[in-house]
Amino acid sequence: MEIYEQTQGRNYILAVDGGGTKTIFLVADCRGNVITRLEAGPLNLNGQKKEAVRDMLLDAAGRLKQRGFEPAHCMQAGIGTAGISNPESAGLLKEIFRSAGFICEINMFGDHETALAAAFPSCEGCILIAGTGSVCMGMMESEGNKKLYRAGGYGHLIDDGGSAYFIGKEILSAAVQSEDCREKKTILTQMIFKKLHLSCVEEMIRWVYDEKRTKNEIAALAVLCGDAAGERDKTACEILDRSADELAKLAKAVLCHMPGKHDLVFSGSVLLKNEHVCRKTQELLLEEFPDIHIKLAKTESAEGTLRLMMKRKAGAK
């Protein structure tokens, strides 16, 4: 991403990518050239209380103002995040932006849409995302019409297989089952205790069921599984294998609808930072789609938000 010299007092476009752990704000000029980048806390309303999201956005707006970008000078804003299919969540985000002084048009996009647009300039292809949550999305043109295919992404309570939350929950489950001898011993138990500053399973249970506990905190434990697998802990390796299996299922469900479109991008912390899950997922997909071309995401989803906004702007002319 090339960042151009900042010019204060000018009108600008704001592209936002709100994730489960952080939010990226990109300020661009009217031609889509990025001027400045800002990083803030999580935005996803599925895992954050609205007060925390409001505080984060108001703080970010204040930081942008300090850099010379007044909310009133924003010509157009785009927000990419999970859960915007819920009208209440989308309405709340727009309300928060309005309260921060943004009076411009506000476009809403799903996080899977922006990630796909970031990975493919044509906005056609397939992307598998495994961060705090998980989803696979494919877009292709058929007979002059764009067709969208999606699998997963229905939230941590009933879905999100293979995600960081999935791995974190599996780690905690393995710890209690190891403790009462239902399953084999694992070094994951002591790793959890060390990370959370706990001394026993009973304390861990109280930590898990604390009413203030968030899904992001559970997902943050996923990194322990990679560390334990590196120590050849069998339980950790099995958890990562299950994660890869779930992610491969998501991708297969979409790829089977896209003949001749077997270009796939891996995105999200689980696939980009956990070598075991990345490798195993690729192996499983190659078994069914030997011609598949897989690459790792190198472009931030916020750039996908900006690209979608520019395409929409161009189409409106």
UniProtKB/TrEMBL annotation:
Protein name listed in UniProt: N-acetylglucosamine kinase-like BadF-type ATPase
Organism field: Murimonas intestini
ATPase BadF/BadG/BcrA/BcrD type domain mapped to chain residues: 16-295
Lineage: Bacteria, Bacillati, Bacillota, Clostridia, Lachnospirales
Gene3D superfamilies, sorted: 3.30.420.40
Pfam families the UniProt entry points to: BcrAD_BadFG
